[in-house]
Amino acid sequence: MGTPRKLVVKSKIWIEDENGGLIFGSGRLRMLDAIERLGSILAAAKELSMSYRAVWGKIKATEERLGRTLLARQVGGAQGGGSELTPLGKELVERFRKLQTMAQEDADHLFEDFFAEDFPGDARAEGTGAEGTGP
Q: What CATH number belongs to 15-86?
């Protein structure tokens, strides 16, 4: 057998409504981050290699499930349109980031408690962010 490899735990979280409808996850977080930074759904969609319709559809679905708006949109015209996060949108982004960080830290500690004895290596030695694709 080869050299033992260091093991790390990965976790992924998202928020759903009581019917299983996706409210928020890492994908929605990336979308809102890009919109806030770029000031435009279209620019965010391009940066994320998504269509405008896909980005807008996902945000609209989340808004409908929450019953509240996440984006303040200004429709085009001579100056062009734009979008920015509402105070609720900003708060959702901030709280979700905190939740992700805390969940990963807890997962790291639990992993260390359950696996460190049989699988040596500090689970936190290598960055253990919640990586990958998902909601």
A: 1.10.10.10
